[in-house]
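Regression report. Comparing outputs from two consecutive submissions.

Submission 1:
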Amino acid sequence: MKYIKEIDEYLGKQFDSGDDEVRTWFLVRQNILPFLLCGMYALVVKIIGPAVMKINP
């Protein structure tokens, strides 16, 4: 949990514009889980899925 908090603070420093709307665009301070799930989905669809399809014809 501490590690996630450190990542959240780092992203907050990188993307903090002072505007609450911009923070929600970059998923800073909230919604980290949906962001990670989208990344995992893209990984499965683009890399893992095609590799599995090549193994099993």
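Submission 2:
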Amino acid sequence: YEVTAEEKTSAMVGMMGPLLTIAMALGVGFIAISIIMPMYTLTGAFG
């Protein structure tokens, strides 16, 4: 039982890395879009 529990735990930890990377990328992308979109709106208003 302990061996399978350790295997499942290590598999879960192994999956956390890529999932955290994707979550961070989505967060950074969302912040970047929220900063860039108003700039495009302002430049469009003056253009």
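Expected: both submissions complete independently.
Actual: both completed, but the second showed a warning that disappeared on reload.
Relevant detail on submission 2: The chain is about 95% helix and 0% strand.
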